[in-house]
Amino acid sequence: MLIVRSKIKEVAKDFNVAGDFPDALNRVAEMLVKEACVRARENQRRTVMAKDLSLLLYK
Description:
Elements: H1 5-12, H2 21-42
């Protein structure tokens, strides 16, 4: 598990966090890490970098 429910609650502040939300967010995080690993491998690197993330919002 990459995602910690207590940390989600810190960010969500006044909102409740449903029991299924951390699991769903964890699946998204795992997918992003795996995709970043593919990009790093395609660039002949064994180090995953921020630039390997596929998020449009990331800068």
